[in-house]
Design brief:
- The chain is elongated.
- By secondary structure, it is α+β, with helices and mostly antiparallel strands.
- It has a domain of 95 residues: Structural Genomics Hypothetical 15.5 Kd Protein In mrcA-pckA Intergenic Region, Chain A, CATH 3.10.290.10.
- The mean pLDDT is 82.
- The chain contains 4 helices and 7 strands, in the order βααββββββαα.
- This is RNA-binding S4 domain-containing protein.
């Protein structure tokens, strides 16, 4: 018996298969949180996709767009991914990504742990730069 060629696949399986998400559970969660859209409409993990669909994946601050070239339910090697999808992300979104990299902002949520050694050094350097004010005796005037 020959293997059936599928013309539709669940979006969560495809996102995992083309390595956009590390696990299928993470792909399902992204769909449930509304981060995956097709033609501006958020989709459920069970949504069936076909070749030619354009899928938008929102990973703040950027929304990536991918065109589905072929379908697969099985995870593949990274070298095979270009046969199954094409990146059609708008250049303005890529500019946003470059700008966020250039700012050097470390996106660590408040209270998520202790400062790193680098953070400590930067804080010490900042406080040492203004330590010359300690030498002033302002009360003698």
């Amino acid at each position: 018996m020959a293997k059936e060629v599928k013309n539709e696949v669940r979006i969560d399986k495809w996102l995992w298969a083309v390595r956009l998400f590390k696990t299928r559970s993470i792909a399902i969660e992204a769909c449930k949180k509304g981060r995956i859209t097709i033609k501006g409409v958020t989709v459920k993990p069970s949504r069936m996709i076909k070749a030619g669909d354009v899928i938008e994946v929102r990973r703040p601050p950027v929304t990536y767009s991918f065109e589905v070239l072929a379908l697969s339910e099985n995870r593949m090697g990274a070298k095979l991914v270009p046969e199954f999808m094409r990146d059609v992300t708008h250049p303005s979104q890529l500019e946003i990504l470059e700008m966020s990299k250039m700012t050097g902002f470390v996106d660590r949520a408040r209270g998520t742990g202790r400062p790193t050694k680098k953070d400590r050094r930067e804080l010490e350097q900042f406080t040492d730069d203004y330590s010359f004010f300690d030498d002033w005796d302002l009360e003698e005037e």
